[in-house]
Amino acid sequence: MRLLCDTQIIIWAMTEDDRLRPATAELITDRGNDVFFSIVSLWEVAIKVRQGRIGVGVEALRERCEFMGMSPLNLEVAHLTAVSRMTDVLHNDPFDHLLIAQAVAERVPLLTSDSTVQRYPIDLIKA
């Protein structure tokens, strides 16, 4: 199975946060799955680091993701095009919009615990 993790799931997996359900952790660590982290998530973390809202550095996050077997998903023009075609925008988080667009464009379910993102009509897995 191919999966795209949202930013919160990546942070929880990296920090072994108790909010990460065991079934979700198993999906991420199952070597039979192709699990992706988005460059968009690294960008979001970089901004949160700059704002003093998170203590996990971008490089450490990338290294940990790769150590856990995740592959990076770069931001492509097709993803931006998918953002421009979003019609049912339920909130104003540009990072979520990009992650949703990447999931749609790549035809991969988005693994998320975000209840707002879960309201979008996309292929997702509730974490």
From TrEMBL:
It comes from the Bacteria. CDD domains: PIN_Sll0205-like. The lineage of its organism: Bacteria, Pseudomonadati, Pseudomonadota, Alphaproteobacteria, Sphingomonadales. This is PIN domain-containing protein. Residues 4-120 form the PIN domain. Pfam families: PIN (PF01850). It comes from uncultured Sphingomonadaceae bacterium.
